[in-house]
Hints:
The chain has helices spanning 24-39, 126-139, 150-154, 157-172, 179-188, and strands at 44-46, 56-59, 72-91, 99-113, 119-124. The chain is α+β, with helices and mostly antiparallel strands. A hairpin with a 7-residue loop joins strand 3 (72-91) and strand 4 (99-113).
Amino acid sequence: MLRIVRHPHPALRFPSRPVLQIDDDLRTSVRQMFELMYDARGIGLAANQVALPFRFFILNLTADREQRTEEQVFINPEIVKRHSTIEDEEGCLSLPGLYAKVRRARKIRVRAYDLTGELFERDVDDLLSRAIQHETDHLDGKLFIDYLEPATLKNFTEAIRGFELEFRQGQNQGRILSDQSLKQKLAEMPHPSAAFAATGYAPGEEPAVAASEQPAEPGV
Ligand SMILES: [Zn+2]
């Protein structure tokens, strides 16, 4: 069973490995990730946000589970061109409730495989461009807070510490595996399969998102 992990879960900083095979395991994981993303009212989710250290992510900019035709899967994505920059607000399902302006390329060219194994290349801009850059960063172990200036980051210190405290408490109480065990599981994982996901949470210990905590704006 997959679940969305939060900062400072080691999967979010773990170097993701390329997907070598598009099989039923991967398709099942992708489907589960879409359902988790809709539950969290997100528009995008990277595999390592569900503790699968493999290079793929999903998007549906509508955040609406009824709009299946808007679902997009990017496997082994590469951003091959970037053009000019623009600043806009971002949030992240692994840091729920935090929003900040991040400067990113305005237009990009992305190359990736889809779920049928077909290689595609697209030029995109606006929200799609931003979401692809945010998710590709996840695969490289990078979070949007890494871009913030120290002055801006200061405003989030307390919130970020809150996430860290919650996670460490879970580990101290034995509800979440230790960082060392999680890293070992991540390193040994043979496939991007829900059966192997290294969330590290004891059953029923999902980090619940209370209704009031749900992102007001789409997270990714
Ligand atoms: Zn994110």
